[in-house]
Write a structure and sequence with these properties.
11 helices, two-stranded antiparallel ribbon, 261 residues, Rossmann fold, 50% helix
């Protein structure tokens, strides 16, 4: 049997459906779970129709799990269908992507998303939450339910303490590691992308290490577009791998040390 929670056969009340996701307390889908899923697809349908496996998030497959899936994707069993759901398809191996038909699910228009969010979560700064969530309403709702505003204030204050030399990168990194890694990386990416847009439009100054109201450099040191873009690329890499990081505090410490040395 697979790890509890890794496979959920009949999760939506149907014996011919399987939902594959990371096991509890883990961030990746192991190879053993994929092998169980392949065995499930090879069985005869209970109701004479198709057998369907949903893998979500597919970008959490380990390398071994993705490799195990290749042959089945190339030659799926008769009546067997595999649906891979990924927010970052580029993370998946090219060999996986080349064997799939792609369907992009577009984000809703901001006004429609805010209306939907307000109906489910009441009043909040939904425009801001949507921006941080990259326009994804469900992610924005999850951020709201997770008290993102309060956590964002703490992250912002940590940057100010670093910029003023009143805090060390290691201490801040240890605090950040207590948060959800995806949330921290998402907030940093939003902060830097907002800074890049603002700097490019000439709406904000980068001469004192602060862009908008976000300190991104030691006090008094100038920032430039090249530095901002380089940091944005660093955070993009953190977003790509950070959710799987075993030592998130070390990643944050190295990042902040480079920024505020």
């Amino acid at each position: 049997m697979p790890d509890p929670g890794a496979l959920e056969q009949g999760a939506m009340g149907h014996a011919d459906f399987m939902f594959l996701q990371p096991p509890p307390e883990k961030s990746v889908i192991p190879v053993e779970a994929v092998r169980e899923m392949i065995g499930f697809l090879q069985l005869k349908s209970h109701q004479g129709g198709a057998r369907v496996a949903l893998v979500c998030p597919a970008d959490s497959l380990t390398t071994a799990a993705a490799n195990s899936l290749l042959k089945t994707l190339e030659e799926p069993p008769a009546g067997g269908f595999i649906i891979l759901v990924a927010s970052s398809p580029a993370v998946l191996p090219a060999t996986i992507l080349s064997r799939c038909q792609r369907l992009a699910v577009r984000r809703p228009e901001p006004d429609a998303a805010v209306e939907w969010l307000r109906a489910r979560g009441g009043e909040a700064d939904w425009q801001l939450l949507l921006e941080v969530a990259g326009g994804a309403p469900l992610r924005a709702l999850a951020l709201h339910q997770d008290n993102f505003s309060g956590k964002a204030r703490q992250l912002h204050d940590d940057l100010r303490q670093l910029a003023a030399g009143r805090e060390s990168p290691v201490a801040v990194a240890q605090r950040w590691a207590e948060h959800d890694n995806e949330l921290v990386a998402q907030w940093l990416y939003w902060t830097l992308s907002s800074a890049v847009r603002g700097s490019a439009s000439g709406q904000v100054s980068t001469q004192a290490g602060i862009v908008g109201n976000q300190p991104l450099q030691n006090a008094g040191k100038a920032l430039n577009m090249q530095t901002l873009l380089h940091r944005l690329a660093e955070v993009e890499e953190l977003r790509r791998t950070g959710a799987r990081a075993v030592k998130a505090d070390l990643q944050y410490a190295a990042l902040l040390q480079r920024w505020f040395a």
